[in-house]
Amino acid sequence: MPAWEILNQEAHAGLRVSRAVDGGRHFAQIVADEFLKAQPYYAILFTKHPETGAFYAGVVMGVEPGRNLLTEHGTLPDYRPADLERQGFFVADGNIVIDREHAVFSGPDGQALFEPDGSAALPLKRVQQALHTLEKGIPETDAIIQRLLSRRLLEPIDVSLDFDDGERLRLEGLYTISLDALHALPDEEVLAMFRQGDLQLAYAQTASVRHLRTLGRIRNSRLLDPRA
């Protein structure tokens, strides 16, 4: 069982949090409010929760589990999704709760959560904002996904990547918005999507798929130079 504790300054004054764990995350959940922030850097796709079968959105950062191809010196150089920012932290009964066994608290480059005067340091403020983003954004994003499904706009995406060493990797269980299906919608449906904000998100998501090719190029380059 996780060693969950309610976060408080007295008990956790010396606790430090590291971003180095990002290197082991190849996929992270995002919410609708993050689409436009994430789209310049990541492929945004949909997948199904393994236990519930419900769709959720996420960013692809690697083509193999446990390997993030976009980290530099152990951290992401660009937008960091809230799901990564809040690693090791949860909300329970209105309190911020931590899992003391999470690797985020054991990295050698950790930053303090609290200032010497007991106030929240910048890393903790980021965690608080991330938790708020997810708490507000997950139900909103679930509603958007239901609207996409009701319009039959989600379809599986075939992602097969070939590499110079002859290996082929296929990413399974990913979905994208079908532009063909979107463009075939009646005008009143498209107008409704525009007014709901769904249309902007749909085009951001479909445009982001190009980043999958970038991941393939990065992995290919590291076959020749593992330090790349």
Structure characterization notes:
- With 228 residues, the protein is α+β, with helices and mostly antiparallel strands.
- It has one domain.
- 34% of the residues lie in helices and 20% in strands.
- It has a three-stranded antiparallel sheet, with helices on one face.
- It is globular, with a radius of gyration of 19 Å.
- It starts with a strand and ends with a helix.
- The mean pLDDT is 92.
**Largest sheet, described in full?**
3 strands, antiparallel
Distance between the termini: 38 Å
The global form is globular
Q: Strand content of the residues, in percent?
A: 15-25%
Summarize the helix and strand pattern as letters. EEEHEEHEEEHEEEEHHHH
Radius of gyration: 19 Å
Estimate the helix proportion, in percent.
25-40%
- How many helical stretches? 7
Low-confidence segments, given as residue ranges, are none
Structural class: alpha+beta
| Number of separate domains | 1
Strand order of the largest sheet: 1-7-6
Provide mean pLDDT, rounded: 92
Total beta strands: 12
What is shown here, in short?
By secondary structure, the protein is α+β, with helices and mostly antiparallel strands. The protein is built from seven helices and twelve strands. The strands form five sheets. The chain has a three-stranded antiparallel beta sheet, with helices on one face.
